[in-house]
Amino acid sequence: xxxxxxxxxxxxxxxxxxxxxxxxxxxxxxxxxxxxxxxxxxxxxxxxxxxxxxxxxxxxxxxxxxxxxxxxxxxxxxxxxxxxxxxxxxxxxxxxxxxxxxxxxxxxxxxxxxxxxxxxxxxxxxxxxxxxxxxxxxxxxxxxxxxxxxxxxxxxxxxxxxxxxxxxxxxxxxxxxxxxxxxxxxxxxxxxxxxxxxxxxxxxxxxxxxxxxxxxxxxxxxxxxxxxxxxxxxxxxxxxxxxxxxxxxxxxxxxxxxxxxxxxxxxxxxxxxxxxxxxxxxxxxxxxxxxxxxxxxxxxxxxxxxxxxxxxxxxxxxxxxxxxxxxxxxxxxxxxxxxxxxxxxxxxxxxxxxxxxxxxxxxxxxxxxxxxxxxxxxxxxxxxxxxxxxxxxxxxxxxxxxxxxxxxxxxxxxxxxxxxxxxxxxxxxxxxxxxxxxxxxxxxxxxxxxxxxxxxxxxxxxxxxxxxxxxxxxxxxxxxxxxxxxxxxxxxxxxxxxxxxxxxxxxxxxxxxxxxxxxxxxxxxxxxxxxxxxxxxxxxxxxxxxxxxxxxxxxxxxxxxxxxxxxxxxxxxxxxxxxxxxxxxxxxxxxxxxxxx
RNA sequence: GGUCCCGUAGCUCAACUGGAUAGAGCAACUGCCUUCUAAGCAGUAGGUUACAGGUUCGACUCCUGUCGGGAUCACCA
Length: 597
Hints:
The protein contains 21 helices and 15 strands. By secondary structure, the protein is α/β, with parallel strands linked by helices. Among the domains are: about 90 residues, Arginyl tRNA synthetase N-terminal domain (Gyrase A, domain 2); about 110 residues, no CATH class; about 180 residues, Isoleucyl-tRNA Synthetase, Domain 1 (Orthogonal Bundle). The strands form four sheets. A five-stranded parallel sheet has the order 7-6-5-11-12, with helices on both faces. Helix 1 crosses helix 3 and helix 15 crosses helix 16. It binds one RNA strand of 77 nucleotides through helix 2, helix 14, helix 15, strand 15 and helix 17.
């Protein structure tokens, strides 16, 4: 039973009866009542004031009185300015609650038979993942779960930037300084191992540049002509020409990186349905560009470079293939996009989880695909998110201020272990259980920290302050959940039947319980909004509100001291339902819960 | 310079898409553990929503301008 719908119907019939005016149900504005006023549902009356040439407060009183006389589900009302605040009766609250408690999939929609694709993570293969990647990965993973919750079949994919000058830089440094070392021999994680050589390349490059500058060259000249840079470029050309030795090393080093990434993904609890590699798609993109050239939607300059003119769409001319025939970044993106729609013909659109620095790139990409005649291009969406800044400013790999993902996670596990031990509530945990718990708490802290903020906004991370465990945080929600589980355990142990149904005769429902039921009732709306806005932060903040409301209830109301046995059943069921929504809501954020902490 | 985004308590973020006296957390201060987990709860203090206009019953939200910050406009990715 949908209360808002009932209220709309009731209000329109009230208006019809009082003013002899027909108003559509959807034209009646309803919102939740502000905390300072009595009531839980509020009808806005301002828009009727002109129509009936009457003070909105008076309209509210008339409608309210009509409700009391004609609508028995309405318990009470008050009018403040143009706001008609309403409380419903006990039976309606119980019905509303029963509707939620008896539905194990509360908030989740049935399969729509529609498909879509979400791209996220998609790192370069020359260095390990950092905090920015974590925001990307959690966002992409969470939005995939949320879209699934509203009924889509979701394909999670990556495009791995496995080819290009960046990996050649690591390769040449390894050839020069590696002496046959490997992750196995050195005991390093593969991505960090390869990253080390990327850094070595930069160091050597700088050394050579400084040397040349001393000899009187400009910085630009020095960089272009630095020996190690030329060697890296040479490797790239050899790679393009499929030199077997170079390809062999390339494969070896990329696999080291993938090994490392896989370990990180595993600790993060994310996975992908299909992985695309740029080395396999970039030629495909070139073919599509040539097709467009033949169709005259692109044009070629005298030097053989291929371009698209997007000026009439408010964008610029964009290069698609270089004069030497090699492809640029967008070439492979065109190819990959088309390939994906061929691989998955049923997908309606693709969602690209990529930082906001690439907004222009995606505008251009979608427009090009549209010009090429792909109808789905209009549906594609760039899930753009803001950068993570440090108190000192931007993260810069050159200045070594990048927050390494693996290191951060390790630190968080360490902090959560320390804290948990201090509180001393888990003495019955064995070593394995402890480890699992510390990891869960740490990961929930990091994921929640990154997901609670609106993706569009850039955010700040202070490595010195690390990530909180109190207040609006993952651990706070874990804690609330663990408390509820503890109550449910106890009720089971003392033999209370958790079999609430509509016939259970509850004495009274207090304000804390009403607030909780109200919050539970809006869970489906929150999922819908999160999906349509591509914003997991809606879910995160909602779960926080629900947890707070439950903690308040927990503090004020003693469940087991209650004398009326039916009220106890109701409260146990209420607790169980809150735990269910917390569990499912957090699952949408990709966060696993612990039963005890 | 063109285009786009952002500016809310000391700090980090919300605000149901135009609704009530702008809310939380952190930091500070004050209470609450012989009672279901104190990683909790309650309270005090903290604001001209960058600034100036406009639109209307009503603006953090929409429009215009100004100031401040960021991104982007590569034969880089």
